[in-house]
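It is worth pausing here to work through a concrete case rather than discussing structure prediction in the abstract. The textbook approach is simple: state the sequence, then state the predicted structure, then interpret. We follow exactly that order.
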Amino acid sequence: MTVPKVAFVTGASRGIGLSISKMLVGLGYKVYGVSRNPENCIYADKMFHLIECDLTNAKQLDSLLDSIPDKKDISLVVHNAGLAYFSPVEELSSDKIREMVSLHITAPMLLTTKVTRYLKQNQGRIVFIGSVSGKEISPWGNVYASLKAGIHHYARELFAELRKFGVKVHLIIPDITKTDFYNHLNFEPDEDPKSFLLPDQIADVIRDLVVEDRGWVVPEIQISPEIFKLKRKKQS
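Step two, the predicted structure:
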């Protein structure tokens, strides 16, 4: 019996993270997904194991990998979890800033530190889900965009450091993607299907990286819809 490869995906219960998890299960991976509210996930499979964890909680984060019995077999890590608060800088609360810093910078850095020794042993790979906001000036996205730019640079640093050990590092930079990311924002993707990406399309890009392993690495990919178009939400 073939032992399945083991993957670790944050923000795995919905949106892009769920699409990635389902794709990896389809490839035969055992997927350990992390979610703050796993009970809200609508997907179930014997190869998909959701772990409840608030990645902004230092105590929960420190013990997260201990809940994975075969953590030494992890060969793929996908840092996907995220959220954004957009507002003028003087209106952004301290709690919201801390939450975004913890989720977008602290958590992926600490988890990477803990799991890299296994990835070196297994000749594995790390995938960071960035954002086009980290490459552009984003109105009222001052903190979110800055943090994404920071994790972009971290991914590039890791690519240079870990390639000598056979660990592949990829930075995926999606543009507007139709998920519930926009639920609490005052703008959202337009109805035009050419103006947004779908989570499954992001998962398809990662599938190609994982399956088509030809001995060379694509360190960074930006994915954009054909048309740029956003709309403001109607005020209720």
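Step three, interpretation. The helical segments are 15-26, 58-63, 94-122, 142-162, 199-211. DSSP finds five helices and nine strands in the chain.
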